[in-house]
Write a structure and sequence with these properties.
8 helices, 2 domains, 40% helix, 5-stranded parallel beta sheet, Rossmann fold, alpha/beta, 27% strand, single chain, 5-stranded antiparallel beta sheet
């Protein structure tokens, strides 16, 4: 378990390491004291990041954003004594997994927070594996599955849907005009047949159904399924 400890206070690093070593002796903890340390540390996979908010060279939200940009599923815990409620809310919106006040009485809470975020990360990984297996099965049955945000940006699609659209990859599918497809899924009404201009300029008719789903952060996404009716 590779852990980055982002804190430029040596005394705090000692106390945090002590608590971590008591509960997680297998952790491989790497100190990050400066921007160069963080840049180098993020060249290899990371399992967990613990960061202070107020750093001489940056702040915890910037660290969070850099970590999530490189490793979106890596859990990040902010352990700080200088944050505010507004900072905590902003950090949570940016993808922070937990927020712990850095005070003498709260050092013992850090291991519990770490265990909780690692447990949630493992659960998400299991769910992704199940979803991938499910998508493969649906592709074999000729059922397309897709997901998009409410702005119409296609986030994911299984192999069957890409084949229907004549797209070699998700990026190719994003270049197509999928407005009718996403509108049909977003409506959450009866199954609809829509015509989509696929790759190589060919039209396809798809039978589409779907609906809106709420994410854990309160945002919404569009999920849908599609079957090929015919190539028009």
């Amino acid at each position: 378990m590779r852990v980055l400890l982002v804190d430029d206070n040596p005394d705090d690093r000692v106390l945090i390491r002590r608590e971590l070593s008591r509960h997680f002796p297998s952790f491989e903890v790497h100190d990050v004291r400066a921007a160069l340390d963080l840049r180098e540390a993020l060249q290899a996979p990371v399992d967990l990041v613990i960061t202070d908010f107020e750093l001489r060279w940056s702040n915890g939200i910037e660290v969070l954003e850099r970590v999530k940009e490189r490793f979106p599923e890596c859990p990040v815990v902010m352990f700080t004594g200088t944050g505010t409620q507004e900072i905590a809310v902003a950090a949570m919106k940016a993808g922070l997994d937990d927020y712990v006040i850095k005070a003498a009485a709260h050092y013992v809470r850090l291991p519990a927070a770490v265990e909780a975020v690692l447990g949630r990360a493992a659960a998400r990984a299991r769910a992704r594996r199940r979803q991938r297996r499910f998508d493969v099965m649906l592709s074999a049955l000729g059922v397309g599955v897709f997901r998009a945000d409410t702005e119409g940006w296609l986030q994911d699609a299984n192999d069957a849907l890409l084949a229907f659209l004549g797209a070699a990859s998700l990026e190719d599918a994003r270049a197509l005009d999928l407005g009718a497809l996403l509108e049909a899924a977003q409506s959450a009404g009866p199954t609809r047949i829509v015509r989509v201009r696929g790759g190589a300029g060919r039209d396809v008719e798809l039978r589409v159904s779907g609906g809106m789903v709420e994410e854990a952060d309160g945002t919404w996404a569009v999920e849908g399924v599609a079957r090929l009716v015919r190539e028009a």
